[in-house]
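Annotated sample (chain length 190).
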Amino acid sequence: MKPVGHRGDAAQDGMHRLFFALWPDDTLRAGIDEVARELMQRHDPGGRLLSAARYHMTLQFLGDFNPLPPSLIGDACAAADTLQLPPFDMTLDCAGSFHGSHVWWLGTQHRPPELLRLWDEMGIALARAKVPVKPHGQAFAPHLTILRNVRRFIAPEPVAPLPWRVDAFVLVDSRPGRDYEVVRRWPLLA
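Output written by the structure step:
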């Protein structure tokens, strides 16, 4: 399984970017889009607003692959099948950006312990199944990207709260020039 270094590689037709994510429902997507547009209007950061269909919160990033290894999706799904965690509530209530990045995001000021547990147990299950993951850095920084290619940094600021009942997670296959494909969905069960 060989990850690809850059999305700008010449042979992009076979490129697959795989990740596990939390996937908002349509009502939440509309609320996120409204907050993102309000932030753009108020701060004029330049860049581009993401399509609401692309909103997600990455849990575990598997990497970029070209070609896609035959067993990778099956192994990742088998690892996810072992997770048995309850649903939980989270609120997107702040916006910000990471230093050195050109994205703005929405996040939560109070990370639910269930979110950290889901991230941690998923990482353990993927490691047991020998599915490679790309590290987030030193710690999990849950966020939902709303703008790309912005010209300036934004310090964290509160936004109108958007409640999110997290009752499932998904495996996503992102391919250049195409919509995200949800490969499979796993419900969180009480």
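Annotation: DSSP finds three helices and nine strands in the chain.
Annotation: The CA atoms of residues 87 and 167 lie 5 Å apart.
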